[in-house]
Amino acid sequence: MSKILKNSELDISTASSIVSETLNKCDDGELYLEDSKSESIILDDNKIKSSSYKSDLGYGLRAITGEVVAYSHSSDLSKKSLNESSKNLKSTLSTSNGTYNFEIKKTNKKYYSEQDPIEEKNFKSKIEVLNQVNDYVRNKNSSVRQVTATLLGEHRSIEILRSGGELLSDDRPLVRFNVSIMLEKNGRKESAVYGIGGRQNYDAYLNEKNWKDVCDEALRIADVNLNSKPAPAGEMQVVLGPGWPAILIHEAIGHGLEGDFNRKKTSAFHDLVGRKVASEGVTIIDDGTLENKRGSLTIDDEGTPTEKTILIENGILKNFMQDRLNARLMNTRSTGNGRRESYKHVVMPRMRNTIMLNGNHSQEEMIKSVKKGIFAVSFGGGQVDITSGKFVFNCTEAYEIINGKVCSPIKGATLIGDGPSALKEVSMVGNDMMLDPGIGTCGKAGQGVPVGVGQPSLLINKMTVGGTQL
Amino acid sequence: MLVYSNKLSEIVDNCISNAKKKGATDVEVGIVKSTAETVSFRNKKLDESDRSENIELSLTAYINKKKNSVLSSNLKTDNLEKLIERCVEAAKITPEDEFNSLPDEELFFKNSDELDLFDETHLENNQKIDYLQEAEEVAFKNKEIINTNGSSFSESKTEVVLGNSKGFKNGYNTSNFTAYCEVVSKNNGSMERDYEYTSKRHFEDLLKPSELGSNAAKFAIRKLKPQKINSGKFDIIFDKRISKSFLNYFSSAITGSSIYRGTSFLKDKINKKIFSDNINIVDRADIKRGNGSKYFDNEGVKIQNLSLINKGVLNDYLIDTYYGKKLNIASNGRSGGTTNLYFENGKKDLKDLMNSSKKIFYVTETIGHGTNIVTGDYSLGAGGIMIENGEFTYPISEVTIAGNLNQMFMKMVLANDLQFNYSTNSPSVLIENMTVAGK
Predict the structure, then answer these.
(1) Which A positions 368-397 lie with beta carbon below 8 A of chain B?
(2) pLDDT of B392-432, one tens digit each?
(3) pTM confidence score
(4) Please, are residues A255 and A384 in contact by the beta-carbon 8 Å criterion?
(5) I need a surface site. Which of A211, A329, B135, B335 has the fewest CB within 10 A?
(6) Which fold has domain A117-159+168-226?
(7) Beta bridge partners of B198
(8) What is the value of ipTM here, to two decimals?
């Protein structure tokens, strides 16, 4: 029974016969149906700057033979349109002679509820919260010059119709609350952003204590930066705080362990399975099963149940993250990492919640051991060049460490390192593992998907800090 | 007279009258419809084909000074009916903002010269494959090129129709052809990637496939066996692929919103000098076949040609209706941002810049997002090639470059090698004495 097709002029048996006929001589493929609703309400400059609601309905038909993927998508859910897509796929794969793989794992587990956050809280009370946030931030600190507060809510129903008529489905809620502020003091301006979110309804995040904590954190970071001095330049020791700084793991290691880059041998890690790629004590997993987390999924966008995949165990590379296509071509199984931004995009292996597990050192111990270095508490975005392994991320809150003591805050600087060697430079793994607050979006080949990260504090022996002070 | 479809035009009209019937005092409706076909090719074989048909309608309902928006890909009448209802109801309970309004009628786009933005050429998938095959074959002639990260060719046709309840309605068609080739080079354990890219309104204006492939190969090979240099002060030349990003930072710092909100390092710099004397920055929408050319902005406003920087002095901001009303300046048609934005050519050859000192870091790529528009602080990962005595010597990677855009803008020296490859274009740029962090 298809919920999505129920209100369209296309019925499930017609859709199913077109799918089965199209995929007849293919190795894999499916019809992906998506019905998504999203809203955004933005308060800026003391006013509700914009409020919008979006409803998006569409399909993507995919056929795979060997290494070749043919994809066609449209927002027109009709028999005519689906037939055209089918024709397009068949013309691309005209010589195809594969055997369809019907096998797909099943699960009864669910990692979030089916609720629709947009409908669960009325519009008026959402606006009210944003106004309270604005008043709270402006009253709390007289240096506040600008406040932007944003609520984003989404509910996405997906269905996967496979050849032979099997139908898999998932309903995914997602919300995010963000506060961005700018302070001005003695002619100097600094800004900061903080947020929370996950696969729940708004009220799980918007009780008074929660949103006040978010505002306080944004204010604290901006205030620290008002007193920051120019950052040092050059190679030095770096202590990373727990939680969100794990985007280092995501960039330095995570992308390089995605199946597609390794199948194509363009990742610096492609021939290193079973080899030591990180210091002893470093264990990294990619986990889609954490309840209500931003990067969690009950099933991935190919219908495979997600799991907790061990990527690196005690320094040794164990597994890549796989979708069905890359798993088949590499003679392994899908790890439930096949994801796409929407029906407008093809599936790729993508991360979920990527986490480094606890070691046994304290953060204090790490800082004490550093003669000259920096303590990086929070970051903006990061980026990686998979082939060369070089990655960067930029600090939004960082301090100088001199002779084992945390000293003055430093201005935002980019940190650059080399993926394959960075984890070998980890000399202490902390005992304070934390997940990020639920704000990450990962971009790859033009597709953005929600992800999570987590790590304990880390001491890295050597990274290049991109400040201005030599 | 611009050409657009009657069917979309009718939907726009119906939505406007429907929303007014439901209580909206003003309405704006836009539809963007596009079809795109992309073929990806890798290691001499077809990798992926993708055909997409997208349509999106956006509607903003005003009830006097209150407003709300809806977007949808489902243009069926009953769905639109429900959405418009929802939109008007939400607008009723959204707080007022005295600056909310449609543009003033006298600013609406009326007519213009034909800009030649649509090429009806259609390439079948096998023609696209032929193009990519030739590009890859040329790249693989180099023995250091061992793999490809994928080449792709896409063709898209887009139709835009916009209307509002003050009587504006217009629309037009554009086309785009883009080819991309990314190759992997390898030599003694060093593995690097680089790409070449060409994107034009008309198929005939694209780079030839052989040029696409040979450039990609050349760029990937010249990065092999990079060194990490010692930290220090260096003069830097930014390759054209990178120097255009300065225009992006500049333009995001002079949008109406960042100026009004005070979140820009260029706030209060109007009529002041922010670049050296011989620097001019222009944004014009009416370049024939221009990648960034448009007939009107996202609100239907006529797009003025702007001389944003004249002899180093900031002349204008980028203004839409909302921030125009807040700042008390008329919209200059920048709802939707800049169009064809470029530095006018400098006076020197790139060769002269390369000879301007003994040792220069030529930056061919940057990585990361370390630019702060509020403070102007700039810190990015970088790679490139060392220039010694005017000659390229060895590749450099895993370093950072840092400074502040206020000072960097004042120190910029432009070469005379401007080309119109993208919507934002810059000649090569020299900036002296920047901090490079390496070993």
Answers:
(1) 380-388, 390-394
(2) 999 999 999 999 999 999 999 999 999 999 999 999 999 99
(3) 0.93
(4) yes
(5) A329
(6) PmbA/TldD fold (3.30.2290)
(7) B179
(8) 0.90
